[in-house]
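Mods, move this if it's the wrong board.
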Amino acid sequence: MTQGRSAFGDRVREAYLESAEFFAGLVDGVDIDGWEAPALGQWTVRDLAGHTYRSISTVVGYSEKPAPQVDVESAVAWILNVRQNADPDRIAEMGRSAGLEIMDSPQMMVRGFLSMARDRVNELDEDFILATPQGGMRLIDYLALRIMELVIHGGDLARALGVEAPPPPSGMQVALQVLAGVAVAEGRGPALADALTGRTPLPSNFNLLI
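Not the wrong board. Structure tokens:
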């Protein structure tokens, strides 16, 4: 299906695939002995890679059955809901469980799902409604959410591996737009704008994810 296409949607598709390729390239570079190294909080490199790989695998899984209606209007709405109901211990455990999904062959799992996701993203209309755990969500909005995950956690993975690997500019632009939207929705837009323009520093605990 290609009738539901726009220049904006094509840019998001491109940003998603470039961000997913960025992440997959980092996974390709993990040594066989590097998977149990510490990465982020309670997570090992394997846990972090498993958690982030779900930004690829869920695009495939959630698109297998369309939802009847849109329940989540944007990537920002998704994040706000998660933040309101966040359980850090549960999130950490989900990361460990995701790490087990890719335990036998992480590189092959990530590359295999990336190939399927690429086909699915290029095939579906941007207004296709995915069935997600939070309800129906347009493909293009779900991709923006996952771009943010791939960019931010890709950066986490690069730091854990001790490599310099900047994310693609297309993905970074989408990620910053999503996070800025969260800041505005929570009334923290002025603080973010002041920090980004060198007027005041951000509070030490400023966090737009969890």
